[in-house]
Amino acid sequence: MDELRLEVDRIQDQFADLESKAQLSTVYSAIGDFDSKLVELPFAIDALRDRGYVHSGRLDDRLEALDQSWDNVRPRVEAALNNHIRRLDQELNETERQVDTLRPNSAAISAAKSAVNSLSGRIDAARDAVSGLYEGMELELSGISSEISAITRMMDLLAESQAIRLLQAEGPLLAVKTEWQRDGKDGPEGVLFLTDQRLLFEQREEVVTKKTFGIFKSASETKIDLLLDIQVGDVESVTDKQEGGFLGMGKDDILEFVFAASAPVSRARFHLKGHDSSDWAAMIKRIQTDEIDEDRADEYVDELQEAVAVAAAFPSACPSCFAELPPPPVGIMSVSCEFCGAQIEPEGAGNSE
Known about the structure:
Layout: H1 2-21, H2 25-50, H3 57-100, H4 106-131, H5 135-159, E1 172-180, E2 189-195, E3 198-212, E4 216-231, E5 235-243, E6 252-259, E7 267-272, H6 277-288, H7 301-312, E8 335-336, E9 343-344
Antiparallel strand pairs: 1-2, 1-7, 2-3, 3-4, 5-6, 6-7, 8-9
Helix pairs in contact: 1-3, 1-4, 2-3, 2-5, 3-4, 3-5
């Protein structure tokens, strides 16, 4: 008999939990979070633009499309939610009568347990049915939110740099802590940056300067130095791969570059710590095909066009020694002739109408 009474208590406790779940409060909470993020994320993008992130156009478009879709779907979600709660309330009342009159005998317990389990299944089915109406949009919103968080981390890393200064109209795209494996295995650690014009590696690491007995660290310094500054146009090839790991776990993301003769190094290999190397390779391709310019926010389109016009206005030969001048990168306001050292500005830069 004691065992039967314990079973009655368990059924009643289970039903008490279902009373709150039948109101589908988790769905209401998810809808509230969805509404809040749709309001908050545009402000987060504005804040990133204020910090110098110019490639927010695609995020703007995705958020706008999502907002419109949500406006269309939300009434259906609310109607479905109300209908399911109304039906669940009726089933809850029927099950409650059965549980309230439950006596410690096997037949009654079996019937009550069946009713409670059935109600639990219907509550889960109702929750899944309603959330299924906006599940795809919820995944899209989560993806946008994660992307904004990654961009924020990138801008934080860029703000910490003591050497990198963006050129006119230059837009940052990616940043990751990495190791430049100069000998194939070891090398300086720091941050690899990718903008729509350049690939940069800034060393940021603690370097031991003195050891006691040749073994124990007794003095060190933080070494910060811009070791690599290469135009993306000088990237002749980039290979992304994964190495090491065990049973598919813990693999290292590797990027290998081959650069043009005009670059300061011919090759470079990086171990990315926390990013997918294939994402970097894909982004570099988007830069080299100018596809990345389609992501510029509207207010930064004119800035890019002006910078391109300035770059095109540089002479093809040095006015002083007539040596051939290679086309300068976009964003450069003056160049030095490598033969005579003359400072050269775009043609017409010093003229006034």
